[in-house]
Amino acid sequence: MTYVSTAEISADVFVTVLLFLLIIAPLFSLGILRFFQSKKKAGFILIGSGAGVYVVFQLIMNMFFG
């Protein structure tokens, strides 16, 4: 078994990832919930929003931490 060292992760990167995960994960889960509730338009909007926030997250990570 191998262990991953988290000593090299800076506080800025950790906080950025944490904030975006608090936004991206709920958007996807709420989108899936809306699909189960047969509210397809709301589901697509939430999942699309989650994908959009993920793209913004990737841009920020590449610009500031890449």
Global outline: elongated
Order of helices and strands: HH
Overall radius of gyration: 15 Å
As a percent range, the share of strand residues is under 5%
Q: What oligomeric state is this?
A: single chain
Alpha-carbon distance between the two ends? 29 Å
State the helical fraction: over 70%
Query: Number of DSSP helices?
Result: 2
Total beta strands: 0
Main β-sheet description: none
What is the arithmetic mean of pLDDT?
90
Structural class, judged by helices and strands? mainly alpha
Return residue spans where pLDDT drops below 50 for at least 5 consecutive residues. Answer: none
In brief:
The chain is an all-alpha fold.
Structure characterization notes:
It contains two helices and no strands. The protein is mainly α. The chain starts with 10 loop residues before the first helix and ends with a helix.
Key words describing this protein structure:
mainly alpha, 66 residues, single chain
Q: Which helices and strands occur, and which strands form pairs?
A:
Elements: H1 11-36, H2 40-65
Helix pairs in contact: 1-2
